[in-house]
Write a structure and sequence with these properties.
By secondary structure, the protein is mainly alpha-helical. It has one domain. Helix content is 80%, strand content 0%. It contains 13 helices and no strands. α2 runs antiparallel to α3 and α3 packs antiparallel against α8. The two termini are 22 Å apart.
């Protein structure tokens, strides 16, 4: 069951990242975050009410609130990086967020093994190679790499916080609901501030473009929520290391979707860097 849930996580996260990246190429990233999360809140609210999740309310929900504050920042950075592209580089670098749970373990007194040290070295090498445009002029902006690394840190922090926010399935639904409500409030506030400063909340085509994109926005929001749920189920049904390794394969899904659906191509050095970053992530998780 652990493998099944973790592989489902990879598929859901990978497709959500692909969809989010495409949407932000024509819709402001903050709008994508707010609308997709608002739709997820609606569905989660129904689930919490149906399962009696409110009975699980307690002080641990503050971890979900913290995750809800960090999450929109990470998603915004990640979607902007995906919009700058290419997805085959950005998505694997985003998976480096697994280093955050590892660091939490170090603070708690754990000591890294040889594989974890190797993972750090391989991941750093991958980051340098993925920035190959500085050597050959490949179309990857330095800003995209920086945004992706900020997003990776945020994703890792969210994983650690949500793990602390619940211990049961119904508690998980409530924690995800609280997290998404906070996501929407924080993202909505940022969107309002952006508009006040002269930014755009709608694409150039206006409201009709948003309405046309609602199914895709709903998919992105719900797939992200479902992935969090399946990952938690995987971690509760078996070794966390196995769940983390299999769930960390989601960049492969994003890269394959980008290659198959929009014909994205990478230079050799970029592909090598993205691959090494993914290998480093796996080594960090298994160490």
């Amino acid at each position: 069951m652990t493998a099944l849930f973790a592989l489902a996580t990879s598929l859901l996260w990978g497709l959500a990242d692909f969809g989010g990246g495409l949407l932000t190429r024509r819709i402001p990233a903050l709008t994508v975050v707010v609308v997709s999360q608002l739709m997820a809140v609606t569905v989660l609210g129904v689930i919490v009410a149906a399962t009696g999740g409110w009975s699980e309310a307690g002080p641990r929900l503050w971890f979900a609130v913290a995750a809800g504050v960090v999450g929109p920042v990470a998603m915004l950075c990640f979607y902007k990086a995906l919009a700058l592209g290419p997805m085959g580089v950005v998505s694997p670098l985003g998976s480096l967020g697994v280093a955050v749970p590892v660091s939490v373990g170090l603070i708690a007194g754990e000591r890294p093994g040889l594989l974890q040290f190797a993972g750090v070295a391989v991941a750093v090498t991958g980051i340098v190679l993925a920035g190959g445009p500085q050597l050959r002029g490949a179309p990857v902006q330095r800003r995209a790499i920086l945004l992706t690394l900020v997003a990776a840190f945020g994703f890792g922090a969210v994983m650690s916080l949500i793990a602390e926010a619940s211990a049961t399935v119904t508690g998980l639904f409530l924690a995800l609901f609280v997290q998404r409500v906070t996501n929407t409030v924080v993202g909505g506030t940022a969107l309002y501030a952006s508009v006040r400063r002269g930014g755009r909340a709608l694409p150039e085509e206006g409201g009709p473009a948003i309405r046309a994109a609602l199914p895709a926005l709903a998919f992105v929001g719900l797939a992200d929520v479902a992935a969090n749920g399946t990952y938690s189920m995987a971690a509760h049904h078996g070794p966390v290391t196995v769940a983390a390794v299999l769930a960390s394969l989601y960049p492969v899904v994003t890269a394959l979707a980008a290659r198959g659906l929009i014909g994205e191509r990478l230079r050799g050095v970029q592909a090598a860097g993205a691959g090494l970053a993914l290998v480093g992530t796996v080594l960090l998780a298994t160490g």
